Amino acid sequence: MIDDRVAALDWSALEGELNDHGVARATGVLRARECREIAGLYDLEEGFRSRVIMGRHGFGVGEYRYFSYPLPVIIQSLRASLYSRLAGLSNRWHELMGLDAQFPNTHAAFLERCHAAGQGEPTPLLLQYVPDDFNCLHQDIYGEHVFPLQAAILLSEPGRDFEGGEFVVTEQRPRMQSRVEVLQLSQGDLVIFAVRDRPAKGSRGTHRVKHRHGVSRLRGGRRHMLGIIFHDALK
Length: 235
What we know:
Layout: H1 2-8, H2 11-21, E1 23-26, H3 32-39, E2 48-53, E3 60-61, E4 63-67, H4 73-96, H5 107-116, E5 119-121, E6 125-129, E7 134-138, E8 149-154, E9 162-164, E10 167-172, E11 179-183, E12 190-194, E13 197-202, E14 205-215, E15 218-221, E16 223-228, E17 233-234
Antiparallel strand pairs: 1-12, 2-4, 3-7, 4-6, 5-17, 6-16, 7-14, 8-12, 8-16, 9-15, 10-11, 10-14, 13-14
Helix pairs in contact: 1-4
């Protein structure tokens, strides 16, 4: 079912947005019931390998939890199906940026590579924000093997469950000021974005632009978001 929804997305348009801007949005990938069920996992004891309090590390204010293996079925399906759709684009990006690493067609094969290098800790995470929480601009890099794209799905409904907490992406361009993009997401919307670098065309050919992402200050309510990172972390 999830695989069918992912396959039905307008991937030509999504790839165009990613090539042009480094970020793309698809609406209604998860149903409201599915969003509530995933968000409801946050307070359970089982199913997670760690909890991170962002203020302790200078990451912002708020907290998130990394899932443990085995992942919930719906998250595993999303991770595998999204990866298979993004592997080709990721390979083209690496070629344009002059990077040697190429990515296999299946997520299972890519994880074998990660795990062989000691990156065996799962990285999908569930984030929770309450009033005045925010997430500083950052990049999710956990080891040598880094897939150049990642995804997130908003699990809460703006205006009903929370206020504020916009998803923010910045693009640092060579010899130019940074560009900022703020995405207005609804419950169940998917956002795909560059982890670290992406190729961009300039007057002197293709160059790299650096990306970071974060979340603006929550002004009220409670906000949950699912993060889907395709590379695993060092143990």
